[in-house]
From TrEMBL:
It is found in: Cell membrane. The chain crosses the membrane at residues 28-52, 90-111, 123-143, 170-194, 215-244, 282-303. This is Multiple sugar transport system permease protein. GO terms for biological process: transmembrane transport. InterPro entries: ABC_transporter_permease (IPR051393), MetI-like (IPR000515), MetI-like_sf (IPR035906). Residues 86-303 form the ABC transmembrane type-1 domain. Pfam families: BPD_transp_1. SUPFAM superfamilies: MetI-like (SSF161098). One of its GO terms (cellular component) is plasma membrane. It comes from the Bacteria. It comes from Microbacterium thalassium. It is a multi-pass membrane protein.
Length: 320
């Protein structure tokens, strides 16, 4: 076939290829458009609006406000309450996240064994993670009650004294206990990961004389490390943003009176809440949120970088 005959055929093939690529591209954006529109309207636009508000002295009520530049941001770095709330939040996260992940893994290993009524045991551990947070807070307020609470009753059985759990300094520890009660959600995720650990590896390790702890440390944990990392990264982000739990656990009759939240459980988001709805400083509160957003983003990137050294990803054998 001559070159003059091949040229129109090649041009027609290239034209059909471009048409197919345009069809695939338009189909992709047609299916993705609901999410893209939702992201722009419900997420991106509020973020930009919050940044604009953070540059003003807007109080949330008065129509009279003015542009003050980065004055709110400068004030944040000199605000002792903000720094105290941030340090308190980091301490809270450093305690809750490792204990939740380790506790969830321990429970998963426990219920992964062949025991009687295994499904019922799994359900019992998982139920706390699906109970509404308001019901959980009410239950724990009854448990932490100084005079009629179950916890003080148990303490007195062992000769201890009554503890006023919902005020300083014990409110911080009460909040930690309530958060750890819901570690059943992590247990389910870890349990699903344990199901994929090859039994042959564990049996080979036992033949070589490895004990249960060594099998968990050197085989199980490396194999499920991506799942554990997922729990850590989502746990850190979620715990840093906790707001409702301290408000519900506080000794107050209404959520609006957040002034009654004990100082020891005033985490960063509670401080933001107070600036918004108690001090009516919307501009300052928006600036605090932006600073916190950048802080969480930086912390997430650091954790992601660390994960490259400690998380083991399996390579697909079929591709090899």
């Amino acid at each position: 076939m001559s070159s003059s005959t091949l040229a129109p055929v090649a041009a027609a093939g290239e034209s059909r290829g471009r048409g197919w690529r345009r069809y695939r591209s338009s189909t992709f954006y047609a299916f993705a458009s609901p999410w893209i529109i939702g992201f722009v309207v419900l997420t991106l636009a509020p973020i930009i609006y919050a940044f604009v508000v953070s540059l003003t002295n807007f109080d949330g009520v008065s129509p009279i406000w003015r542009f003050i530049g980065f004055r709110n941001y400068i004030e944040i770095f000199g605000d002792a309450n903000v720094w105290a709330a941030l340090i308190r939040t980091l301490a809270f996260t450093a305690i809750v996240v490792p204990l939740s992940v380790a506790g969830g893994l321990g429970l998963a290993i426990l219920v992964n064994r062949r025991i009687r009524a295994r499904g019922l045991v799994r359900a019992i551990f998982f139920i706390p993670s699906v109970v509404p947070i308001v019901a959980v807070a009410i239950m724990w307020r009854l448990i932490f009650n100084r005079d009629a609470g179950l916890l003080n009753f148990i303490l007195q059985l062992f000769g201890g004294d009554k503890v006023t759990w919902l005020v300083d300094p014990y409110a911080f520890y009460a909040l930690i206990i309530m958060m750890l009660w819901g570690m059943g959600g992590g247990m389910i995720i870890s349990l699903a990961a344990l199901q994929d650990v090859p039994v042959e590896l564990e049996e080979a390790a036992r033949i070589d004389g490895a004990g249960q702890w060594r099998i968990i440390r050197h085989i199980v944990i490396p194999l499920i490390s991506p799942v554990l990392y997922f729990q850590v990264i989502t746990g850190v982000i979620g715990t840093l943003q906790i707001l409702v739990q301290p408000l519900l656990l506080a000794e107050t009759s209404t959520i609006a009176s957040s002034v009654n939240v004990p100082q020891s459980s005033t985490l960063y988001m509670v401080e933001v809440y107070n600036e918004f709805f108690y001090n009516q400083r919307f501009g300052y509160g928006a600036a605090m949120l932006w600073v916190f957003f950048i802080f969480i983003l930086a912390l997430t990137l650091i954790l992601q970088r660390i994960s490259k050294r400690v998380v083991f990803y399996q390579v697909g054998t079929e591709a090899d």
